[in-house]
C-alpha cells in the first residue's frame, strides 16, 4: 500500500543567539576563528610568514600561501549507521534508513542526505509529517520529497545561518555537537543527527607559548603570533613601552623638560616642531628655538630694537639689555660742561641716573644746594 507524502512539515527555528554580522574574509585577519566565522568561503593560512592570513583559498594562494598551509573546514555529512532492513517479511513496522549521521556545518553552506522511509504495509494512506526535536537556535532543517511510493525518499537539508558570536561561543554548547531527532509523526522510530557547527579552528588548540617565531614574546596560534603585553608587531618584535619612553626622552631638551619643549610632537624619537604662520618659526632638535618667544618692551618684541633668536633678543647696534630697551648711545647724557651727567650721575640706557640731591636730564639741577 502506497503512502502519499502529501505535505511536509518544515520546522523552522528562529535564531535567538546574537549572531556575528557577515563581512568579507580579508577584514578578519586577526584570528583563525574570526576568519572562518566571517563567511563559508573564508580560509586561513597557517604559515607564520604570510602577509595575509584570512582570505578565500584562491586569495591565499595568490598571496603565496602553500596549499599545505591552507586551513578551510568543510561542511560534511558522515553516515554513522546505515543498516538495511534484514527481515523483509516484517512489514508491520516503519523503517528508516540511514539511522545515524554526523553533520559538520559551515554556516551558510547547507548539507543534504536522502532519507528512505519504509512504511508498514497496513498503514492507511495518509499524510506523513516529519518532526524534529532538540533543534538548537540558528539551525534550519527542511525536507523535500524525492520520490513517493513505498519506500518514500525524502531529501533532508540542514543549514545554519551564522556562527554564534564569540561571547556565545565561549558557552560550550553554542557550536554543538547537538543531537537532533527526526521522527515520522505517530511512529516510534527516528533518525539521529549529530550536528556540529564549524566555527572554531582546530589549530587554536595547538598553542605554542613563548614561541621563538614570536620573538619568545608571544604564543603562536594557527601560525599567527598572539603577543604578550607589552609586545606588538607581526612577530611580537616591538616592545611598546621602551618604544614610547625611550623615544619620548630623546625628545626632551633635558630630563624633565616638556617633550619637544611643548611645541611639537615626538615621532620615533625625533621632534617634529609645530608649524606657525610666517614669519614665526620654531626650530631646534627639541623645538626649543622660537623667533616669537622673547621679552617685550613697550608692546614690541625685543623693544623693536633687536631680533628674537631661539627665545633670546639679539639687539641691534647701540642697543642692549634682555629686551633691547637700553640704548648705548650717550649723547643725550652730555651736560653743558661736556661731562656725562654733569659728573653727578651715570648714563644708563641713554638716561642720566643722578646721585641723590641732583636732578634734571643731565643732573645739573640741585634744588637742595645752598646758593653761593
Ligand atoms: C544507505 O545505504 C543504502 C544501501 O543500503 C544506500 O542506497 C544509501 O544511499 C545509503 N544512505 C546514505 C545516506 O548514504
Ligand atoms: C530555512 O530554509 C528554508 C529553505 O532553504 C528557507 O526558506 C528558510 O528561510 C530558512 N529559515 C531560516 C530561519 O533560516
Ligand atoms: C551542554 O550540553 C550538555 C549535553 O550535550 C548538557 O548536559 C548541558 O546542560 C549543556 N550546557 C548548556 C550550557 O547548555
Ligand atoms: C651707534 O652709535 C655710534 C656712535 O655713537 C654711531 O656712530 C652709529 O651710527 C650708531 N649706530 C646706529 C645703528 O644707530
Automatic annotation (TrEMBL):
Residues 1-22 form the signal peptide. One of its GO terms (cellular component) is integrin complex. It comes from Pundamilia nyererei. Belongs to the integrin beta chain family. The keyword Disulfide bond applies. It is found in: Cell membrane. It is a single-pass type I membrane protein. This is Integrin beta-1-like.
